[in-house]
Design a protein that fits this description.
This protein has 692 residues and is an alpha+beta fold. It has three domains: 64-265 and 544-690, Rossmann fold, CATH 3.40.50; 282-376 and 427-514, Orthogonal Bundle (Helix Hairpins), CATH 1.10.287; 388-418, no CATH class. It is built from 18 helices and 18 strands. The protein has helices at residues 19-28, 32-35, 40-48, 106-118, 126-131, 175-178, 187-202, 227-230, 252-262, 267-327, 330-377, 400-409, 424-475, 487-514, 519-543, 545-562, 595-612, 637-654; strands at residues 64-77, 80-89, 93-98, 132-141, 144-153, 156-163, 182-185, 208-212, 220-224, 235-236, 567-572, 578-582, 585-587, 624-628, 659-664, 678-679, 683-685, 688-690. The strands form five sheets. A six-stranded antiparallel sheet has the order 2-1-4-5-6-7. Strands 10-14-15-3-16 form a five-stranded parallel sheet, with helices on both faces. Helix 10 runs antiparallel to helix 14 (487-514), helix 11 (330-377) runs antiparallel to helix 13 and helix 11 packs across helix 14. The radius of gyration is 33 Å and the shape is globular. 32% of the residues are buried.
């Protein structure tokens, strides 16, 4: 625990925390009188849900380098069509796409790169989305080369990710090559596959945030951070945006993303506690007024249910009188009562069937994700992919047992030698993630038998009730037809039984909500979480000192290169909150009012974070950044030239460590890098120079 003399940054990392150690430390932070009222088991239960044993990866994050973008299609403007065949190579260091006209496709090139890396095309203009049919993005992770191929086939998005460089259509990629990567169809499936690939490559922490439930205002839902969300740290939007990473309404996402890319210690358990506390506060907001509102609503529902039951009884009594002359009245009353019970039994069967279907769907999704992760493990095996079916020496066919041995124990079908493996750590990470998904699927699978038993019991009950109804109906002779309920009465009775079933469901839901804990329970749990957070934050701040020191060191170099002399340092907190030191005072990013200074401060922070990613076991940023509409905030030519000079200094000093792709209409930025890294228009449309 973080007690006693503070450790120096160069000392070995602290040992993993223990559940009991954190529990005891959290209890110690309560005053004695309060501590006596806090059950230790309750504190331990909160701590036990946290993954305290998970240590940060010490592997250096692979450097992401976009090497070539190609896309084809047909541009349609004012009924004039022209072919699109965009093909641009990019280099390490600072790259600048400079086209002085506006609205000519520069940002569309940026969005296409983002689309190829994330599978998300939500930022595309609808016209551009329709123009482009196929995309190729060649990139590398350190010295490993990959190609992403994207395209629409029959209005469905398809994606192939494979090793090495490829420029053929995705349909022409050999199956043996695809087996070394993956292929997916459908918007969500493509995003999930690319997300799993990059998040595991960069070993980003599994974080998330809370959001109000879209239909249940008193509830909140947990939103896991996806790869498109993380990608916000790989681009800087145009200079008019006054927020650091995310829009103000999503400001807490800034902390989450910085936690991930700075590789901060204990970010996952701290994030988990924050999400749990936010959910409790949301619940707490409703608790004060909810009890009275729920009681009032429940009373009205019960009153309505009693009235419906009285109406049903009156209807049954009326029908019983009509049968009394025929057969004493009992038979028809029993028949109508049995029909009502049958409707309620069938409703129960339907509800359980829907629950079973939902659980099966969730289990399949977890298993599918596990399979997808294990497909990534195939990338760690150096198989040639050649389908050898005949021995080249003796011309004999390959034994089926040799083929099976190659698949199961990874021994060559010809020489019987074991296949060399690389990336054992990566494979272990993927396997761990796959096992976690399988664990979730297994938990659901364990629940399914119980649901199946409930369903079988409900079906049996419905079948027995159906038999009672049929037996009563058979007992009534044709001569007694006039005693049966009329079609109108049956319809009315059915509607009343359905409404009673709905009321029963709603009353149960209200009872469940109000039974979720009192205001005192919520308050006590919040206090426990606050104390556990305090313990972990103290420990994290101690462990993060090395990261913060290195970040400041790198930021100082970059700030000097950018000419942002008033910014003298960067302070990062365990929660992921980042503040700047300006004139020896800590300030938030939004407090920097000058647009040009704000942009340079943002760029300095991002570049420092990118450089940090080059350090093994420290940062997790892959060293790739896109700058959109560069220069918009600089109001005078001198400031534009100064920004271009600053980028040129970055090119001169850090070209081997980072890649920056700038998209701008300002000609001054042709001086931001060497001439071979400045790119211009590829087409002229209606007198305008266009990117494509």
């Amino acid at each position: 625990m973080a007690k006693g003399p503070k450790k120096k940054a160069e000392e070995p990392a602290a040992s993993p925390l223990t559940i009991d150690g954190v529990t005891d430390a959290a209890l110690e932070r309560f005053q004695t009188k309060v501590r006596e009222r806090i059950p230790r088991d309750e504190v331990r239960a909160i701590v036990a849900k946290l993954d305290l044993a998970k240590m940060r990866s010490t592997r250096k994050v692979p450097r992401l380098l976009v090497r070539r973008l190609k896309f084809v299609g047909t541009k349609v403007l004012k009924d004039v069509t022209s072919p699109i065949d965009y093909d641009q190579e990019f280099q390490s260091g600072v790259n600048a796409l400079v086209i002085e006209d506006n609205l000519v496709g520069k940002s569309s090139v940026l969005k296409t790169i983002k689309f190829a890396l994330t599978g998300s095309y939500d930022e595309y203009d609808q016209e551009v989305r329709k123009w482009i049919t196929d995309i190729w993005l060649q990139f590398s992770l350190d010295d490993r080369r990959y190609t992403v191929l994207l395209g629409w086939r029959k209005e469905e998005l398809r994606c192939v990710l494979v090793p090495e460089d490829h420029t053929c259509l995705m349909e022409d990629v050999p199956k043996a090559v695809i087996r070394k990567g993956f292929q997916q169809s459908g918007d969500e499936e493509v995003q999930a596959a690319l997300g799993a690939f990059f998040v595991n490559e960069f070993e980003l922490a599994a974080l998330g945030w809370n959001r109000a439930h879209p239909t249940k205002g008193k509830d909140s839902i947990d939103i896991p951070a996806t790869w498109p969300a993380y990608f916000q740290a790989l681009r800087i939007l145009d200079d008019n945006h006054t927020y650091l990473l995310c829009k103000p309404e999503y400001a807490n996402q800034d902390r989450i993303l910085f936690s991930a890319f700075l590789g901060l210690h204990l970010s996952e358990p701290l994030n988990q506690l924050s999400m749990e506390a936010a959910a409790i506060r949301k619940r707490q907001e409703a608790t004060a007024t909810e009890a009275g509102e729920s009681a009032e609503k429940r009373a009205k529902l019960v009153e309505r249910r009693e009235k419906l039951r009285k109406d049903l009884a009156a209807l049954d009594a009326d029908q019983a009188k009509r049968l009394e002359v025929i057969k004493g009245g009992d038979l028809t009353a029993k028949h109508t009562e049995a029909q009502g019970k049958l409707i309620e039994a069938n409703t129960e069967v339907t509800e359980i069937e829907e629950q079973q279907q939902t659980l099966n769907t969730q289990m399949k999704q977890h298993n599918a994700t596990a399979r997808l992760l294990r497909e990534q493990i195939d990338l760690s095996r150096e198989l040639t992919g050649l389908d050898v079916s005949i021995c080249p020496s003796c011309a004999r066919g390959i034994d089926p047992e040799a083929l099976e041995r190659e698949k199961t124990v990874h021994q060559c079908r010809l020489c019987v030698r074991p296949v060399p493996t690389v990336g054992a750590d990566d494979a272990a990470q993927l396997e761990a993630a796959a096992k976690d998904r399988e664990r979730l699927a297994a938990e659901i699978k364990e629940r399914l038998p119980s649901v199946a038993r409930d369903l079988a019991e409900a079906r049996k009950k419905a079948a027995e009730q159906r038999a009672v109804v049929e037996a009563l109906r058979a007992s009534i002779t044709d001569g007694m037809t006039k005693g049966f309920p009329t079609p109108e009465e049956n319809e009315r009775r059915g509607k009343m039984h359905e409404e009673i079933g709905e009321i029963n469901h709603e009353v149960t839901a209200l009872d469940r909500v109000t039974g979720g804990g009192t205001a005192e329970d919520h308050e006590r749990k919040l206090k426990i979480i606050e104390k556990v957070q305090l313990v972990l934050k103290e420990e994290a701040e101690e462990r993060n000192k090395e990261i913060e020191a290195k970040l400041n060191e790198l930021a100082t170099e970059v700030i000097k290169a950018l000419g942002a002399d008033q910014i003298t340092g960067i302070k990062c907190y365990a929660s992921g909150l980042v503040k700047l030191t300006k004139n020896d005072e800590l300030v938030s990013f939004s407090n920097i009012k000058n647009p040009g200074e704000r942009y340079r401060a943002k760029l300095a922070l991002f570049l420092a974070m990118m450089r940090l990613g080059c350090e093994a076991g420290v940062g997790r940023h892959p060293g790739f950044l896109m700058l959109d509409q560069l220069g918009t905030a600089e109001l005078v030519p001198e400031a534009l030239k100064a920004s271009a000079v600053a980028l040129k200094q970055i090119e001169d000093k850090y070209a081997e460590h980072v890649q920056i792709i700038c998209f701008t209409a300002k000609p001054e930025f042709r001086k931001a890098t060497i001439t071979t890294k400045v790119y211009g228009h590829r087409a002229v449309t209606s007198g305008k120079k266009c990117a494509f």
